[in-house]
Amino acid sequence: MTESGPKDAKKRSLRGNAIKRMPDIERFWTLVDRSGGPNACWPWTKTLTKAGYGRFRVHPKTYLATRWIMAHILGRPLRWDDEVQEYVCHHCDNPPCVNPRHLYVGDQSTNMHDCSERGRHYWARKTHCPQGHPYTPENTYLHGGRRTCRTCALARARQRQARKAAEQWGRSSLPGTPDSSGAT
Questions:
Q1: pTM above the 0.85 mark?
Q2: Residue 85 lies in a domain
């Protein structure tokens, strides 16, 4: 068994410096697994965010790997200001993928539309309302851009009508039914 001495430390140091001196684009590709071929996802192999997106450090800043490669391909930084916010969206829905064939520039609206269309949005994945009724075409309608359960909406409408009728008659129950005093 050999011990690592000063020569080994110097080799490691030189190798690290060689990577640092490498152009950013070459260094970027050394951190990507492109073994699946040109049309496959190319996953980022180093540090990921909690959401699974790659992080690429170009001293002194750290970028999302997808944003950095798209900026490099476009030849300009992606805009993120009060007027325009450019997102990098995935055709493949695979956050660590940095294959330029799978990426495109969009905005928040495009990103949310894709998310919903592909069933990745939290609400889009729900199959039943909170009361357990299924979200079927017959039992669902859109209200203000959100799905609403027809069965629950009908139950709420009936409760509202019952409250109005009780208020109209000045009682806590409907006409013809006993109220809290026992009278009809």
A1: no
A2: yes
